[in-house]
Amino acid sequence: MRGIKRPARSGSCLLLAAALLVGCLSIARADNALPTLAPEQLQAFLDSRPEPTLVVVMASWCGPCVEELPRINTFSKKYRTKGIAVVGLSLDFNPAAMKRLLQNHPVDFPFYWVGEKGIKALNAINVPLFLLLRPGQKVERLQGAINNAQLQALFESLVPN
After folding, report:
1. What's the pLDDT at 161?
2. Terminal C-alpha separation, the chain
């Protein structure tokens, strides 16, 4: 067939195959993913908290984070009635890792994935990292593992007068 050009198959087919593969991976990944917060959304998200909030920044591979998660959840339930919110942020490279951890250690507060880009955005040198947010006030930060008394003091410091 002279005069009819056949499309270049190799490039087109590879692009189509890649697009289909990426689409399939995204669908499979979505089932294991946490809600995502992009680094450029973090500051607005933190600034928009209407109530005093303890933000817990952690990773599934962090031993102290895993140990503290059940205690944080217990305090979250106790202090919710006093107007304190808790939000978790995962720095894991893969959101499915934190999702698996939360399936084994369920919590009653929302968790978001910020990934490795969140490390720089949050200036997270160590995990766990605790951010104490009070509307209209400067953010307080505490990095590293804490004991039960310190955790309770964090929650108490957020209780409105």
Report:
1. 78
2. 85
